[in-house]
Amino acid sequence: MRKIVLLSPLLLSCVSYAASNPVDPLSAWKETPVKQAIEKWVQESTRDGSPNYIPLDKRYVVFDNDGTLWPEAPLTFQLQFAMDEIKRLAPVNLEWKNDPLVMAVLNDDFKTVAASGDKGLLKLVALTHSGMTTEEFSHRVSHWLDSHKNRHTGCRYDQLGYQPMRQLLDYLRANGFKTWIVSGGGSDFMRVMSQKMYGIPPEQVIGSFALTEFRLTKDGPQLRKTMKGAFNDDKAMKPVAIHLFMGQRPVAAFGNSDGDLAMLQYTSANPDYKTFEMLIHHTDAIREYAYDSHPPASGKLVDGLALAAKQGWSIVDMKQDWNRVYDPELCRK
Amino acid sequence: MRKIVLLSPLLLSCVSYAASNPVDPLSAWKETPVKQAIEKWVQESTRDGSPNYIPLDKRYVVFDNDGTLWPEAPLTFQLQFAMDEIKRLAPVNLEWKNDPLVMAVLNDDFKTVAASGDKGLLKLVALTHSGMTTEEFSHRVSHWLDSHKNRHTGCRYDQLGYQPMRQLLDYLRANGFKTWIVSGGGSDFMRVMSQKMYGIPPEQVIGSFALTEFRLTKDGPQLRKTMKGAFNDDKAMKPVAIHLFMGQRPVAAFGNSDGDLAMLQYTSANPDYKTFEMLIHHTDAIREYAYDSHPPASGKLVDGLALAAKQGWSIVDMKQDWNRVYDPELCRK
User: Fold this and answer.
1) For residues A18 and B257, what is the distance between their CA atoms, to the nearest angstrom?
2) Which one, A36, A165, A332, B211, has the greatest CB density within 10 A?
C-alpha cells in the first residue's frame, strides 16, 4: 500500500475511509429502535446485491440545520449574529439611532424584536447581511464566532453541533453518502462553519440567499451582497432549492420542524429507491430545550408528528434516543 | 492491494485514479504553447512543495458549455431542442397556430426567429421549458437526444463534445480538480447529458434557470417548471451564480465568448492562488466554424481577445491547437 498512498492525498483519504473502525461510529446514540432503523437502512442500501441497494452516485442525503444539526432555541444563532452585528455597527451608523427596531436590539428587548415579525427580521437581515462584499461578510461571521460565546452553554457557537448528528454525518459519508445541508439559514452564513462543524463543503450547503452584484472596482472584481432576488429556503421552497442546487432527488432527509415536511415528502416519494426520513423531536428540557410541540414555538413540530406516524418516518426523542447532545471534547461546560 | 480494492467501489475509483496512464491524456491537443501552458499550470498547482500548490479542497475549475465544450453555431443546441419541441407539440396545441413566431419555427424561418430577439427566445423557452414536471422535462430532453441528429455532422447531439476539452476535463479530475459547468444554457437541459458527455454530475452544472413549483398531487409530490424567478447565467451573472452555487472562487476558468469575461475576471482575481484562464477562439471553418470575431455573431469574442492579451490568458486557436475537434470513436462522419 505505501507506494500508492504516497502517490496522492486523495488516495490517503480513500485508504483512511477503508480503515476499519473498532469504535461504534454512532456512540452518542442510545441502542433504541431509531438507531437500529438508521443502521438497517444504511446496511440495506449499501450492501451489494441487496434489493434496496442504492448506487454511489445516487446516495444524496439532506439535512436541515437549525434544530436538526445545531440548536435553534430560544432564538436561531443567525438572528443572534444579526443582533450582535447591530450592536457592533450602531456606533458608526448614527442614522440607525432613531429606529425603534434597532433600539429594541440595542436594549435586548427581544419582545419587541419578536413582535416585529418577518418584516422586522428581514430588516435586521438587510442591515447586517447586505451592502458588503462576500469576503467581508465571511470575515464578519468568523470574527463573530471568535468573539462571542453562546450564553446558555458557555460554548463557541461552532462547538454546538449535536454530537449524535455529527456522528451520523460521518457514518453516512463513510458509507459513500454525499451529505447536504438544506436550511432556512443563509448560505453565506452557514458556509463559514459548515466544513469545520460538519465536514460539509460550501457547495453542499443550500440555504436562504439573495443575489450578489458583480462590480469591477479599483480593488478588482467584487461581489457585493444585496437583498435582490431573496429566496427563503423553507417549507415548499426546500424541494425547489434541492432541485435547483442538487439536481436530483435525495434518498434520505433529516429535519426537525413542520418547515421541513415538504423536503421529507419530496424525498420519501423518490420513485427509484427505498428512502429514509427522520424528524428530531426537541423533548429534552434539561440538556437542550423542550419546545417544538407547543405552537407557536419556533421550529414547531405538530403536523410532522402526525405525518411521521402515518408515513413510518423515524422520530428522534432527544431525551430518550441520545446519550449526549453536545460533544464534551469540543466544549466542557 | 486486492484485499482493499474489494472493500468498496469507492476504493476502486481511487485506485484507478492512481493507475499510471501510458497514453498522452491530452492527445487531441497539438504540441503548442497552449497545451504546454495547461500542463505547466497543473503540474505547478498539484506538486507538493510547489510555491503555486493548490490544496485539494480549493481545486475548483469552471467551464462554459456552449462554444467551449460543444458547438453553439449556427445556433445553440438548446434553441434547436426548443424549435424541435415546438414542432412536436404544435399538433396538440392548436392555439399556437396563429402565432407568427411559432409559424416561423414550423417553417424553419430562422430569420424571423432570430429577428424576434430575446423576447422571442424567451417565449420559445416558456412554451417548451415550463408547465411540466421536472421529470417530464428530463424525459423530453432524453427523447430529443435519442430521436434527433445534428444536421451538420450527422451525429447525436450528445456525441459532439469537443474531444480536446473532454480530455482536459478528465486530465484535471485525474489531478484532483473538481470540474464545474457555468453556462448560459439551462441547468435542467444540461444536467440530462452532463454526466455522460463530460463526467460532470448534476450538482456541478450551473446554468440559467427558473424556479419550480412544489405541489402535492394525487400522484404524489411534484415539482413543476415555471418561468418565475428566471435567472440568465451570462456575463456579470456568471460570477454571481458561481458564488451562489459553488460558494468559493475558482482557480481556473474556461470560456469562449465575451459573455464569459466576468467569470474569467472573477477567477483571475483569486487572492490566494495562481489561476489559469483560457478562451476558445473559433477559427476552424473546415472542422467547425470560424465566426466569433465577426460581431454580431453569436458567442462573439472581441473584448476577450484584447483582454486575454493584456492578462496573459491562453487563447486556443481551434485550427492551430487541436488535432481533432470531435471524438472519432463517438461518431464517424
Assistant:
1) 45
2) A165
B51 shares its domain with B138 = no
Specify if B21 maps to a domain. no
Residue A135 amino acid letter: E
User: CB of A108 within 8 A of CB of A87?
Assistant: no
> Are B262 and B238 contacting, i.e. CB atoms less than 8 angstroms apart?
yes
Q: Examine the domain organization and report whether A139 and A239 are in the same domain.
A: no
**Are A103 and A131 contained in the same domain?**
yes
Name the closest residue on chain A to residue B223, using Cα atoms: A240
Residues B132 and B200 in one domain: no
Average pLDDT for residues A75-103, to the nearest whole number? 95
SS3 of A85-124: the string is HHHHHHHHCHHHHHCHHHHHHHCCCHHHHHHCHHHHHHHH
Tell whether B201 is within 8 A of chain A (Cβ): yes
Domain that holds residue B278: 27-72+161-321
Q: How many domains does chain B have?
A: 2
- Divide the 333 residues of chain B into consecutive groups of 10 and give the mean pLDDT of each group: 40 45 90 98 97 98 98 94 97 93 95 92 96 98 98 95 98 98 98 98 98 96 97 98 98 97 98 98 94 68 94 97 95 68
B158 and B145 Cβ atoms separated by less than 8 Å: yes
Residue A3 reports pLDDT greater than 90: no
Contact state of B4 with A11 under an 8 Å Cβ cutoff: no
On chain B, the residues whose CB falls within 8 A of the CB of A229 are 229, 231
Cβ atoms of B254 and B66 closer than 8 Å: no
> Cβ–Cβ of A212/B56 closer than 8 Å?
no
How much is the pTM? Answer: 0.92
Contact in structure between B176 and B55 (CB atoms under 8 Å): no
Nearest CA in chain A to B208: A244
Task: Give the CATH number, domain containing residue A223.
Answer: 3.40.50.1000
Residue A214 with chain B: CB contacts under 8 Å? 236-237, 239-240, 262, 266
Query: A216-256, pLDDT tens digit by residue?
Result: 999 999 999 999 999 999 999 999 999 999 999 999 999 99
Q: Which residues of A touch B209 (CB under 8 A)?
A: 244
Name the burial class of residue B107, with classes exposed (0-12), middle (13-18) and buried (19+) by CB atoms within 10 angstroms of its CB: exposed
- Say yes or no for a CB contact (<8 Å) between A223 and B266: yes
